[in-house]
Write a structure and sequence with these properties.
By secondary structure, the chain is α/β, with parallel strands linked by helices. It is built from 15 helices and eight strands.
Length: about 325
Amino acid sequence: MSRFAVIGGGAWGTALASLYCRAGHDVVLYARNPATVDAITERSENPRYLPGIALPAPLRATGDPAQAVAGAKVVLLVVPAQSLAGVATELTPLISPDALTVLCAKGIERHTGRFASDIFAAAAPERRRLAVLSGPSFASDVAKGLPTAVTIAAGTTEEADAAAQILSTETFRGYASGDVRGVEAGGALKNVLALAAGAVAGKGLGASAQAAIVTRGFVELRRLGEALGGRPDTLMGLSGLGDLVLTCSSPQSRNFAYGRALGEGADLGRMKLAEGVFTADIAASLAQDRGIDVPIIAAVAAILAGRITVDDAIHALLARPLKREIG
């Protein structure tokens, strides 16, 4: 049994805390919302983010970050990319020097183009035990103990192997990788493409269009992911293609649900936070800076910025010149 600290009381943070608590670890979850802390502590549930799912009774929650990380051997940072810099700066002095820190959110900092590992390295340059967790996984499935496979990346394959051993359970299988950038790129870019897939579904364009947007979207993910430093085999794996397929095929995905609302013309003010909304514009900019053609990602960014409508974007994509699929 090890002491785990999970920073972030949303759906994914709660699911991971539940997972490791059920696996026999001593887990403390930090949440900013006092109502979330009270619900977990008093009723073993998180009705705001994981309604209807019973959490293990030994799981503890706190609103004090110092209490959460005190004595922890593993610290999971489950906070959005846009908030990570501040959280990392605040928490790093409180974390044990020999603790394994795991970055569990997917995204790109929209004002800087930094991935989570870059953000954390700038906030805590002396930290050496760092891993990234990403892959096709819905919080509700993990919280229920359903079988899930993800990628665990670190600076070297040996470090990734060690982290995967720590983070894997009977139902949660971690595949090790030494390609941190590829794992992060796949996790971030698939969110943008899930918005596109959701918009296609919202417009009622059918399963054939859905398959086309996912397939051509993966071409963009792999093209840009490689340009950002990821390896092709990584982008073909769980944290790239696997995560894309899952996220683009189910309303459980916040990004897919947000995109579908876009396509339907629904009230977006009622939608939950979708990380792809923050990632789209910076992803399009990174592609443009590198001369990478990403028409679907660029269209999503333009829709979110209000420069074009969903209908205009679909028309523009269909009007693009015909080309060979390969070669």
